[in-house]
Amino acid sequence: MARATVEEHPQKSGAALLVAVTLGIVFLLFVAFLNTVKPAPGAPPAPFFTESNLLYVALILYAGATALYIGFGVTGLDRYVKAASFLTMFGFVANTVAAGHRWYAAGHPPFASVYEMLLSFVWTVAALTLIAERKFKVKVIGTVTMPLAVVGVVLMQLLPNEVRPLVPALQSTWLHIHVTLAMLAYAACALSFALAMMFLIQDNMKTETFQAATSAMVSAVYVAIIATRFSAWGGLNLIAWDYENKEEVFLQRGVRLFVTVPDLGWLFVIVALAVLAPLGFYIWGRVKHDESKYIVASRGVFVSIALQVLALGFFVLRARSGFYHSADAEGTFQTSLAASPFILSGIVSGIFASLLYLMMVWRRSDLERLLPTADALDRITYKTIGIAFPLLTLMIAAGAYWANRTWGSYWSWDPKETWAAITWLVYAAYLHMRVTRGMRGRWAAYFAIGGFAVVMFTFFGVTYLLPGLHAYA
Prior knowledge:
Structural class: mainly alpha
Number of helices: 13
Strand content: under 5%
């Protein structure tokens, strides 16, 4: 009797979460439907099948899939993985229609801006996730790729998305070739990153090592925010936003106007200390050979997640409303989430990374049961990079040829070109070490993870931190 009771409880729990996620999705979609068919008084009726509505549907479905993957981490029920796969598939369909709508409206493939490239990137990541689940039987790969898709769609909601005429440099067939190769290569790199993470789980990497890596990654996000945006008086400097024209405010060409949100900087300092604390306890435990410090570090992750959620809430509330002073101009100015998309994405990514760590702590044995062997994952990662590398090579070659036709030079050492070359060298080193030195196992996984970090900096970081000839991409 006792055993029957234990077995019935997970089934009820599983049904409860599935019902909750389903009701949440239906409710959010119904609210969106009402806003579409019943606009505000005085406003004209909005078309139903719009790109923004389709992306909203994709976001809800991807978020539902993410919630079910996390639910699997809490309960270990296989039904969550199956349901999450179905939501991913339907989200992919909505994403596909949104990309097609953008193509039709713009008159060219969605490759001409960061928004459009992100649309194509998320679409490709979702497609490769479904392929990996079915062809390679990596059933839980969505635990890594779906949060990435959610962050991508959230970021798209904040980026400028107006359909504008192509600048002269982009009016070329080589745009389609170059960016298609880039998005396919970057998505394959994202898949290899997820596979490498799965490999480390199957290769019995210690849980405390995952905790240290997670804390280091999340700490880097908050340290970067504080280093670049912390005000001397404890505020947080955010870019001013022109709501009428939906664009950033500039003091002069290339110089953005910053406003200071009071006290928000101190909150980010507290959160940074909270996410650094588990890493500190891990290092302390390694130095002193005291495993009890690892337990303290793991518990500290719970505190850091609570504070990260608090920081997210305050950041959203303060950035969306109010007028703030600027040290560079008189008067008060507004800001917006659209003016700080990568700060928001960094915070959300940190929360997802921390939740994924907790999932592994709670359900590592279930994850291992649903994954292929470590050797199989190592081979699949190699095959994925074997696909990504030729795409990267062709991308650089096509870009160089296009650059020569447009600017009269094959290579200009533009920041985007330089970092694309660095990305190519990282994956070339992986393949070289694999083929000539037989590199396998963890070092191969580290290369795959590090390579994807370089890809993300090339994709986003260079665009906003190191502007150059590719300022529009």
